[in-house]
Amino acid sequence: MKKCHFWGRDQYDDHLVDQVLRGEKTVTCSLAAFYYNDPEDEPVVPGDLVEVIDGRGNRRCVIRIDRVYEIPFGDVTDEIVKGECVGSVEEFKACHHQCWDADMEKIGLMIDDCTLLVVEHFNLVE
Length: 126
Known about the structure:
Blueprint: E1 2-5, H1 15-21, E2 27-31, H2 32-35, E3 49-53, E4 59-72, H3 78-83, H4 89-106, E5 116-124
Parallel strand pairs: 1-3
Antiparallel strand pairs: 2-5, 3-4, 4-5
């Protein structure tokens, strides 16, 4: 079974996993620049069952992938915002800049409205 991580502020921050377990978080986004090259998180397709692993390496639940697609950072929708458990597109952008800017800088890129994201919609299975 494929595995995924929902990274928080540090390896012990499981608030995103907790949102998944409560059925609140139903969407996750990744930078396309890293999504296809991350050896720890395999790309998924609709129908895949995926184990959610916390920062300590513990299996916390299983999700089923419903949809996967790419969009530009500037085209984030209200559906994505709600599924990511944030209050607005502006909040989504601010918190994701905080999470991703340093990693993008390391490879000589910056996030702008044209930066591609991979969006995964999912449902909690167990």
